[in-house]
């Protein structure tokens, strides 16, 4: 026998994707996440495509994954998707040491982050 199926944490009109172990500081990742919060999915993809930040490639990949989850797993309409949440969390921090002057050493932190993107299907607004 298998375990009983877990209840879905998100509402029926939402889908999410999580990117873990991104090799960038959470502060820098949050700058890119701010770009796409609240935007339509197609517009957010276009913004990430032309962003000059290195991590925008990984954020775009995570957003595409969330859109694919919405389409394939939850039967949501891709054209009506909006990025409802894009939040950033801390990951692990690698600590390294580098030699400094006068026989001392300096700490170097190499932080990792994780990104959660939630897309929501919005109803088409009645244009009158």
Describe the protein.
- The chain has 128 residues and is α+β, with helices and mostly antiparallel strands.
- The chain has a single domain, classed as Ribosomal protein L22/L17 (Ribosomal Protein L22, Chain A, Alpha-Beta Complex), CATH 3.90.470.
- The protein is built from three helices and three strands.
- The protein has a three-stranded antiparallel sheet with strand order 1-3-2.
- Helix 2 (41-49) runs antiparallel to helix 3 (56-74).
- Belongs to the universal ribosomal protein uL22 family.
- This is Large ribosomal subunit protein uL22.
Largest sheet: 3 strands, antiparallel
Beta strand %? 35-45%
Mean pLDDT: 95
Give the number of helices.
3
CATH architecture classification name: Alpha-Beta Complex
Q: What is the structural class? A: alpha+beta
Shape: flat
The spatial strand order of the largest sheet comes to 1-3-2
Count up the domains. 1
Ranges with pLDDT <50 over ≥5 residues? none
What's the total number of strands?
A: 3
Distance linking N and C termini: 55 Å
Helix-strand sequence: EHHHEE
How many whole angstroms does the radius of gyration measure? 19 Å
At the first level of CATH, the class is Alpha Beta
CATH topology: Ribosomal Protein L22, Chain A
Helix content bin: 25-40%
Organism: Afipia carboxidovorans (strain ATCC 49405 / DSM 1227 / KCTC 32145 / OM5) (Oligotropha carboxidovorans)
Protein name: Large ribosomal subunit protein uL22
Subunit structure: Part of the 50S ribosomal subunit.
Pfam family, one: Ribosomal_L22
């Amino acid at each position: 026998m298998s375990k009983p199926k877990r209840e879905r944490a998100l509402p029926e009109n939402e889908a999410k994707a999580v990117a873990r172990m991104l090799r960038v500081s959470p502060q820098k990742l949050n700058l890119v996440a701010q770009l796409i919060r609240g935007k339509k999915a197609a517009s957010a993809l276009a913004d990430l495509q032309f962003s000059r930040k290195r991590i925008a490639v990984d954020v775009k990949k995570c957003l595409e994954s969330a859109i694919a989850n919405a389409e394939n797993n939850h039967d949501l309409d891709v054209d009506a998707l909006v990025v409802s949440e894009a939040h950033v969390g801390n990951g692990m921090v690698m600590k390294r040491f580098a030699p400094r002057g006068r026989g001392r050493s300096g700490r170097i932190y190499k932080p990792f982050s994780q990104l959660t993107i939630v897309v929501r299907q919005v109803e088409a607004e009645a244009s009158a």
